[in-house]
Amino acid sequence: MAILNNSTYVDRTKAITLIPFKPNLISALGLFGEETSNADSITFDERESRLVVLDDHLRNTDKKNGVDASEYKTHLLPIPHYPMEGTITVKQLKGIRNFDTDVEQAIEGAVAEELEKQSEQHDNTLEYLQANMLCKGVLATTNFGTIDMFSEFGVTKKTSEIDFSATASMESQFRALTNQIKKTYGGRLRGYVMLCGADFFDAFVSQEGIKEGYLVAGQNSPLRNELGEVANGYVSFQYGNITLVQYDDVFNVKGSSVQPLADDEAVLLPRGSLGNVFFGPVSKLSGVGASGAKRFASSYRDPKDRYVETESEQNTLVVLQEIASVFYLTIKA
What pLDDT digit, counting tens, does each position of 281-297 carry? Predict the structure, then answer.
């Protein structure tokens, strides 16, 4: 007798990957690349990768520009596991139209609907992981310890108090901050994004000289033109080369409401690649030695035909490699 009965166990990974990804703001900004791993942890190398200007040389000579040798720093981090499941019972199926005419089709429809629900939960979880890493630089997990980007990369958290008094200059304060980011960020800059808590955002756009521009611009933000409907749920404003976004998203974490960014805080980021999201392999026997993917799914039909269990999982680690180029801001008392 086979260990797996194909009539009871069905791999639904292809089905769940075909469900359109529904990004929220952080995912839509494209700050993180994506990589896969064939293990439950990742090992990656860190080295100096700043962009430089090449020197000119005479044509048809042996002298060429090269890449200076640099020491690699190796990091080893676990990939947390985020599973979920749902059970489809006879009672649920009886509520489906045409249940009596085609039971198997009704079951497949119910499984597809369950996968869509679970996919949306995974999208929300990925958004939270990225948002929490950007806003805090640290992720505390239940079973995989605390993943701390500051200690991992040996970086001191960069903080600054913003003076919103009548005599303070917003331009000089933020020019100083962006100049520091330019010196540490190794990639190609496309401006800056500042995620602001509600109080911080209000304090900023209430400043003389800024208030008028904000009122004139209204909600005609370049961010809305770029991200479309994803940006419709956020108030944003373009200040020079900085895109301000009032970011007050709240996530349900273990039954409690968690807001990654406090109302009186802000995070100033370079607009560019800040790190990677690593996806690990499925946590089943078939995942041994297999490559990772964004998510996996399967269904199991009870041999006594009483229910269908639908399972899905993502194995995800967000790494903020450019943590040294992120400023954490507060309102000066």
Answer: 999 887 777 889 999 99
Beta strands of 149-249 (E only): which ranges?
158-162, 192-196, 236-239, 242-246
Q: Are 108 and 231 in the same domain? A: no
**Torsion on CA atoms 44, 50, 54, 55, rounded to nearest 10:** -110
Q: Are residues 182 and 139 in the same domain?
A: no
**Claim: this prediction has a pTM higher than 0.85:** yes
Q: Domains in the chain: how many in total?
A: 2
Backbone angles phi, psi at 207, to 5 degrees: -70, 145
Q: Contact 267/195 with Cβ under 8 angstroms?
A: yes
| pLDDT one-digit tens code per residue, 128-172 | 999 999 999 999 899 999 999 999 999 999 999 999 998 999 999
Average pLDDT over residues 16-33: 93
Same domain (yes/no): 121, 227: no
The pLDDT value given to residue 101: 57
283 & 300 share domain: yes
In a domain, 116, yes or no: yes
Closest CA to 111 of 16, 245, 212: 16
CB 248 within 8 A of CB 267: no
The answer to whether residue 97 scores a pLDDT higher than 70 is no
Q: What is the CATH number of the domain that holds 227?
A: 3.30.1930.10
Task: Indicate if 326 and 307 belong to the same structural domain.
Answer: no
Which whole number is the average pLDDT over 188-212? 93
Who's near 269: CB < 8 A, 6+ residues apart?
A: 31, 134, 192, 193, 194, 195, 325, 326
Domain membership of residue 233 as a residue range: 154-272+322-331
* Residue 79, token pair as written in the block: 């990939």
Question: Which pair of tokens denotes residue 203?
Answer: 């304090």
Residue 218 DSSP class: T
What DSSP letter does each residue of 96-144 carry, written as one string?
STTTTT-HHHHHHHHHHHHHHHHHHHHHHHHHHHHHHHHHHSEEE-SSS
Q: CA 165 to CA 212: how far, in whole Å? A: 17
Closest CA to 24 of 180, 287, 290, 245: 245
